[in-house]
Design goal:
The structure is a homodimer. The longest helix of chain A has 17 residues. By secondary structure, chain A is α+β, with helices and mostly antiparallel strands. Chain A has seven helices and five strands. A four-stranded mixed sheet of chain A has the order 2-1-3-4. Chains A and B meet through α1, β1, α2, α3 and α4 of A and α1, β1, α2, α3 and α4 of B.
Protein backbone atom coordinates (compact mmCIF):
# COMPACT_ATOMS: atom_id res chain seq x y z
CA UNK A 1 0.00 0.00 0.00
CA UNK A 2 2.78 2.44 0.91
CA UNK A 3 4.57 1.65 -2.35
CA UNK A 4 1.33 2.19 -4.25
CA UNK A 5 0.77 5.67 -2.81
CA UNK A 6 4.44 6.64 -3.19
CA UNK A 7 4.30 5.63 -6.86
CA UNK A 8 1.27 7.89 -7.23
CA UNK A 9 3.18 10.77 -5.60
CA UNK A 10 6.10 10.19 -7.99
CA UNK A 11 3.78 10.09 -11.03
CA UNK A 12 2.20 13.32 -9.82
CA UNK A 13 5.66 14.91 -9.45
CA UNK A 14 6.57 13.95 -13.02
CA UNK A 15 3.24 15.20 -14.41
CA UNK A 16 3.71 18.42 -12.43
CA UNK A 17 6.94 19.18 -14.32
CA UNK A 18 5.03 19.12 -17.61
CA UNK A 19 2.43 21.36 -15.98
CA UNK A 20 4.86 24.17 -15.14
CA UNK A 21 5.70 23.03 -11.62
CA UNK A 22 8.71 21.60 -9.79
CA UNK A 23 9.63 17.88 -9.69
CA UNK A 24 7.88 17.08 -6.42
CA UNK A 25 4.49 15.58 -5.55
CA UNK A 26 2.64 14.77 -2.34
CA UNK A 27 -0.58 13.06 -1.27
CA UNK A 28 -2.53 13.05 1.98
CA UNK A 29 -4.22 9.72 2.68
CA UNK A 30 -6.87 9.00 5.28
CA UNK A 31 -8.41 5.56 5.88
CA UNK A 32 -6.66 4.28 2.74
CA UNK A 33 -8.10 7.03 0.52
CA UNK A 34 -6.33 9.98 -1.11
CA UNK A 35 -8.05 13.12 0.19
CA UNK A 36 -5.67 15.72 -1.24
CA UNK A 37 -2.73 15.87 -3.63
CA UNK A 38 -0.46 18.50 -5.14
CA UNK A 39 2.73 19.08 -7.03
CA UNK A 40 5.23 21.82 -6.19
CA UNK A 41 3.75 25.13 -7.46
CA UNK A 42 6.40 27.62 -6.28
CA UNK A 43 7.10 29.22 -9.66
CA UNK A 44 3.63 28.57 -11.10
CA UNK A 45 1.90 30.38 -8.20
CA UNK A 46 4.74 32.77 -7.35
CA UNK A 47 4.64 31.38 -3.82
CA UNK A 48 7.89 30.19 -2.20
CA UNK A 49 5.85 28.22 0.35
CA UNK A 50 3.95 26.23 -2.32
CA UNK A 51 5.95 23.03 -1.85
CA UNK A 52 3.96 19.89 -2.68
CA UNK A 53 3.65 18.88 0.97
CA UNK A 54 2.45 22.33 2.12
CA UNK A 55 -0.08 22.49 -0.72
CA UNK A 56 -1.39 18.98 0.03
CA UNK A 57 -1.64 19.72 3.78
CA UNK A 58 -3.56 22.94 3.11
CA UNK A 59 -5.92 21.18 0.69
CA UNK A 60 -6.52 18.25 3.07
CA UNK A 61 -7.43 20.68 5.86
CA UNK A 62 -10.01 22.27 3.59
CA UNK A 63 -11.47 18.85 2.75
CA UNK A 64 -11.69 17.85 6.42
CA UNK A 65 -12.53 21.38 7.61
CA UNK A 66 -9.94 21.04 10.35
CA UNK A 67 -6.58 22.67 11.05
CA UNK A 68 -5.12 19.34 12.17
CA UNK A 69 -4.64 16.07 10.30
CA UNK A 70 -4.11 13.67 13.21
CA UNK A 71 -5.37 10.55 11.44
CA UNK A 72 -3.77 11.26 8.06
CA UNK A 73 -0.60 10.02 6.37
CA UNK A 74 1.59 12.06 4.02
CA UNK A 75 3.20 10.41 0.99
CA UNK A 76 5.84 12.52 -0.71
CA UNK A 77 7.97 11.86 -3.78
CA UNK A 78 10.93 13.27 -1.82
CA UNK A 79 12.00 13.76 1.78
CA UNK A 80 10.29 16.92 3.12
CA UNK A 81 12.45 20.03 3.62
CA UNK A 82 12.67 21.78 7.03
CA UNK A 83 9.79 24.15 6.14
CA UNK A 84 7.57 21.18 5.28
CA UNK A 85 8.75 19.30 8.39
CA UNK A 86 7.51 22.25 10.43
CA UNK A 87 4.14 22.07 8.67
CA UNK A 88 4.00 18.30 9.29
CA UNK A 89 4.44 18.84 13.04
CA UNK A 90 1.99 21.75 13.24
CA UNK A 91 -0.65 19.74 11.34
CA UNK A 92 0.02 16.72 13.57
CA UNK A 93 0.09 14.20 10.74
CA UNK A 94 0.28 10.59 11.93
CA UNK A 95 3.02 9.35 9.66
CA UNK A 96 5.14 10.28 6.64
CA UNK A 97 6.47 8.15 3.76
CA UNK A 98 8.88 9.45 1.14
CA UNK A 99 10.71 8.00 -1.87
CA UNK A 100 13.95 9.81 -2.74
CA UNK A 101 15.86 11.60 0.00
CA UNK A 102 17.37 15.03 0.57
CA UNK A 103 20.69 13.94 -0.98
CA UNK A 104 18.98 12.82 -4.20
CA UNK A 105 17.24 16.21 -4.27
CA UNK A 106 20.54 18.06 -3.72
CA UNK A 107 22.11 16.18 -6.65
CA UNK A 108 19.18 17.37 -8.81
CA UNK A 109 19.84 21.00 -7.79
CA UNK A 110 17.31 21.24 -4.94
CA UNK A 111 19.52 21.53 -1.89
CA UNK A 112 17.90 22.17 1.48
CA UNK A 113 21.06 21.21 3.41
CA UNK A 114 21.79 24.87 4.17
CA UNK A 115 18.42 25.23 5.90
CA UNK A 116 19.12 22.19 8.09
CA UNK A 117 22.44 23.87 8.99
CA UNK A 118 20.89 27.26 9.73
CA UNK A 119 17.92 26.34 11.94
CA UNK A 120 19.93 25.18 15.00
CA UNK A 121 22.04 28.37 14.99
CA UNK A 122 21.28 31.31 17.26
CA UNK A 123 19.35 33.92 15.24
CA UNK A 124 22.27 36.37 15.27
CA UNK A 125 24.61 33.77 13.71
CA UNK A 126 22.46 32.87 10.72
CA UNK A 127 23.31 33.75 7.10
CA UNK A 128 20.09 35.75 6.80
CA UNK A 129 20.61 38.28 9.57
CA UNK A 130 17.97 37.94 12.31
CA UNK A 131 17.70 40.45 15.12
CA UNK A 132 15.63 40.19 18.30
CA UNK A 133 14.91 43.71 19.56
CA UNK A 134 13.52 44.73 22.94
CA UNK A 135 10.16 46.39 22.44
CA UNK A 136 8.19 47.60 25.45
CA UNK A 137 4.82 46.02 24.63
CA UNK A 138 6.17 42.85 22.94
CA UNK A 139 4.07 40.58 25.17
CA UNK A 140 0.79 42.46 24.76
CA UNK A 141 -0.54 40.11 22.01
CA UNK A 142 -0.12 37.17 24.41
CA UNK A 143 -1.91 39.13 27.14
CA UNK A 144 -4.79 39.79 24.75
CA UNK A 145 -4.86 36.07 23.91
CA UNK A 146 -4.80 35.08 27.61
CA UNK A 147 -7.66 37.45 28.39
CA UNK A 148 -9.81 36.28 25.48
CA UNK A 149 -12.70 34.16 26.72
CA UNK A 150 -14.06 32.19 23.79
CA UNK A 151 -11.12 30.98 21.69
CA UNK A 152 -9.88 27.98 19.74
CA UNK A 153 -6.60 26.79 21.26
CA UNK A 154 -4.11 25.49 18.72
CA UNK B 1 12.71 52.50 12.02
CA UNK B 2 13.03 48.87 13.10
CA UNK B 3 11.26 49.68 16.38
CA UNK B 4 8.52 51.46 14.46
CA UNK B 5 7.80 48.46 12.20
CA UNK B 6 8.04 45.97 15.08
CA UNK B 7 5.51 48.03 17.04
CA UNK B 8 3.21 47.84 14.01
CA UNK B 9 3.65 44.04 13.88
CA UNK B 10 2.82 43.83 17.60
CA UNK B 11 -0.28 46.03 17.19
CA UNK B 12 -1.36 43.81 14.29
CA UNK B 13 -0.87 40.69 16.44
CA UNK B 14 -3.06 42.16 19.20
CA UNK B 15 -5.76 43.24 16.74
CA UNK B 16 -5.60 39.79 15.14
CA UNK B 17 -6.61 38.16 18.46
CA UNK B 18 -9.82 40.21 18.50
CA UNK B 19 -10.35 39.18 14.87
CA UNK B 20 -10.37 35.43 15.58
CA UNK B 21 -6.67 34.80 14.95
CA UNK B 22 -3.62 33.88 16.99
CA UNK B 23 -1.42 36.40 18.87
CA UNK B 24 1.17 36.88 16.12
CA UNK B 25 1.66 39.48 13.40
CA UNK B 26 4.18 40.05 10.63
CA UNK B 27 4.99 42.69 8.01
CA UNK B 28 7.11 42.64 4.87
CA UNK B 29 8.86 45.93 4.21
CA UNK B 30 10.61 47.03 1.03
CA UNK B 31 12.38 50.37 0.57
CA UNK B 32 10.93 51.52 3.90
CA UNK B 33 7.32 50.74 2.90
CA UNK B 34 5.03 47.98 4.19
CA UNK B 35 4.05 45.90 1.17
CA UNK B 36 2.25 43.06 2.98
CA UNK B 37 1.04 42.25 6.49
CA UNK B 38 -0.86 39.48 8.23
CA UNK B 39 -1.80 38.03 11.56
CA UNK B 40 -1.76 34.30 12.33
CA UNK B 41 -4.86 32.79 10.67
CA UNK B 42 -4.41 29.06 11.49
CA UNK B 43 -7.76 28.50 13.16
CA UNK B 44 -9.60 31.20 11.22
CA UNK B 45 -8.62 29.70 7.85
CA UNK B 46 -8.29 26.08 8.98
CA UNK B 47 -4.74 26.13 7.68
CA UNK B 48 -1.89 24.97 9.95
CA UNK B 49 0.59 26.77 7.68
CA UNK B 50 -1.15 30.15 8.04
CA UNK B 51 1.40 31.60 10.47
CA UNK B 52 1.71 35.39 10.25
CA UNK B 53 5.13 35.18 8.57
CA UNK B 54 4.02 32.64 5.93
CA UNK B 55 0.89 34.67 5.15
CA UNK B 56 2.88 37.91 4.86
CA UNK B 57 5.51 36.25 2.63
CA UNK B 58 2.83 34.81 0.35
CA UNK B 59 1.04 38.17 0.13
CA UNK B 60 4.27 40.08 -0.57
CA UNK B 61 5.10 37.68 -3.41
CA UNK B 62 1.72 38.40 -4.95
CA UNK B 63 2.31 42.15 -4.66
CA UNK B 64 5.75 41.90 -6.28
CA UNK B 65 4.73 39.10 -8.67
CA UNK B 66 7.88 37.22 -7.73
CA UNK B 67 8.61 34.01 -5.81
CA UNK B 68 11.59 35.60 -4.10
CA UNK B 69 11.84 38.60 -1.78
CA UNK B 70 15.56 39.34 -1.95
CA UNK B 71 15.30 43.05 -1.16
CA UNK B 72 12.64 42.75 1.52
CA UNK B 73 12.76 42.71 5.31
CA UNK B 74 10.44 40.73 7.60
CA UNK B 75 9.24 42.22 10.87
CA UNK B 76 7.54 39.74 13.18
CA UNK B 77 5.97 40.21 16.59
CA UNK B 78 7.69 36.97 17.64
CA UNK B 79 10.72 34.89 16.64
CA UNK B 80 9.76 32.77 13.59
CA UNK B 81 9.22 29.02 14.13
CA UNK B 82 11.22 26.44 12.12
CA UNK B 83 8.49 26.24 9.44
CA UNK B 84 8.62 30.01 8.98
CA UNK B 85 12.44 29.95 9.06
CA UNK B 86 12.29 27.52 6.14
CA UNK B 87 9.98 29.91 4.28
CA UNK B 88 12.34 32.82 5.07
CA UNK B 89 15.26 30.97 3.47
CA UNK B 90 13.27 29.78 0.44
CA UNK B 91 11.97 33.31 -0.17
CA UNK B 92 15.50 34.70 0.29
CA UNK B 93 14.46 37.61 2.50
CA UNK B 94 17.28 40.05 3.21
CA UNK B 95 16.81 40.41 6.94
CA UNK B 96 14.49 39.57 9.82
CA UNK B 97 13.56 41.52 12.94
CA UNK B 98 11.46 40.12 15.76
CA UNK B 99 10.23 41.34 19.16
CA UNK B 100 9.53 38.55 21.64
CA UNK B 101 11.43 35.28 21.34
CA UNK B 102 10.60 31.57 21.22
CA UNK B 103 10.81 31.29 25.02
CA UNK B 104 8.25 34.07 25.54
CA UNK B 105 6.01 32.23 23.06
CA UNK B 106 6.46 28.93 24.90
CA UNK B 107 5.44 30.58 28.19
CA UNK B 108 2.26 31.78 26.44
CA UNK B 109 1.47 28.20 25.33
CA UNK B 110 2.98 28.35 21.82
CA UNK B 111 5.95 26.04 22.09
CA UNK B 112 7.94 25.25 18.96
CA UNK B 113 10.90 23.83 20.93
CA UNK B 114 9.90 20.27 19.99
CA UNK B 115 10.19 21.12 16.28
CA UNK B 116 13.71 22.53 16.79
CA UNK B 117 14.53 19.24 18.55
CA UNK B 118 13.02 17.02 15.83
CA UNK B 119 14.46 18.56 12.63
CA UNK B 120 18.10 17.52 13.21
CA UNK B 121 17.10 13.89 13.93
CA UNK B 122 17.28 11.19 11.28
CA UNK B 123 13.76 10.68 9.84
CA UNK B 124 13.39 7.25 11.46
CA UNK B 125 14.07 8.68 14.93
CA UNK B 126 11.47 11.42 14.87
CA UNK B 127 8.31 11.45 17.01
CA UNK B 128 6.15 11.53 13.88
CA UNK B 129 7.30 8.33 12.18
CA UNK B 130 8.99 9.07 8.82
CA UNK B 131 9.94 6.28 6.47
CA UNK B 132 12.11 6.51 3.34
CA UNK B 133 11.17 3.62 1.03
CA UNK B 134 13.04 2.42 -2.03
CA UNK B 135 10.86 2.94 -5.09
CA UNK B 136 12.18 1.97 -8.52
CA UNK B 137 11.33 5.20 -10.38
CA UNK B 138 11.90 7.60 -7.47
CA UNK B 139 14.27 9.78 -9.52
CA UNK B 140 12.06 10.02 -12.62
CA UNK B 141 10.60 13.45 -11.65
CA UNK B 142 14.16 14.85 -11.50
CA UNK B 143 14.93 13.28 -14.91
CA UNK B 144 11.81 14.96 -16.33
CA UNK B 145 12.98 18.25 -14.81
CA UNK B 146 16.49 17.84 -16.20
CA UNK B 147 15.15 17.12 -19.69
CA UNK B 148 12.72 20.04 -19.68
CA UNK B 149 13.98 22.81 -21.95
CA UNK B 150 12.16 26.01 -21.05
CA UNK B 151 11.90 26.17 -17.27
CA UNK B 152 12.13 28.60 -14.38
CA UNK B 153 14.90 27.46 -12.02
CA UNK B 154 14.14 28.08 -8.36
Amino acid sequence: MHTFFLSQAIALATANVADGGGPFGALIVRDGKVIAASGNRVTARLDPTAHAEIMAIRAACQVLQDFQLTDCVLYSSCEPCPMCLGAIYWSRLREVYFACNRFDAAKAGFDDGFIYDEIPLAPEHRKIAMHGLNIADALSPFQAWYQLGDKTPY
